[in-house]
Amino acid sequence: MNHLIFHRFDDIGPYNDNTINILDRLEELCIPSIVAVIPNKLERKMADYIKELKYCIVAQHGVNHLNKVNAGWLDEFPEYLDKCIIKKQIRDGRDYLKEVLQRPITTYIPPWNNTSRQTVEILEELGFQVYSSQYNKLVESTMLQVPISIDVVKSYHPKSILKPYDVITNEVQNTMKYIDNYFIGIMYHPNEFLDNDVEMILNLIESYKAMAMEYFDLRELLMKIDTKEI
Ligand SMILES: [Zn+2]
């Protein structure tokens, strides 16, 4: 099985030099990036930057990225919230991204890779075509699912610490051995990276360049144009 890798960058919104350094390099290498943008945290300057990227695919990442559950796996839109209100918030968020980034928004990535059954229904009703969470949080849905399998972060608290390079590459090798899917998604939170982290991540991305999905393939995949062979 010839696996392909895609890179997903979460919590995009604030203007951040490390994020920009990584996305710049991906553009130079003609490797696509999926950026999970938080509508209500998107700064104008960052929007202007993203708008110009040729190899960047924009997904909606919640609306405010605020947790609403008291215990358990974090979620911005848990089941007990009013469906009409959530639907309006997600729709407004999507319309805002469409307007400022001038791109279609057909992919949804829930904050913390988690959301409720009700929200999945809302996403389907709003016409989202692709849902990306993580491999062990798949949902029942008509949306195409492109989960991430690898998180480059070892721990998030009190601040984010990256796994060593070798650990990440081992995880990629193991995922290739055991995953049923052709696609291996790697998740990054570049706003939280230190300068040294950026260097390591760029090395990682470059070392997997040969396995990286082509922009047009990934965009087609995410637009669900030809999913029959997946
Ligand atoms: Zn997030």
Automatic annotation (TrEMBL):
The record's Pfam families line, in alphabetical order, gives:
DUF2334
- Mention one GO biological process in which this protein takes part, according to its record: carbohydrate metabolic process
Q: What is this protein called?
A: Uncharacterized protein DUF2334
Which organism does this sequence originate in? Alkalibaculum bacchi
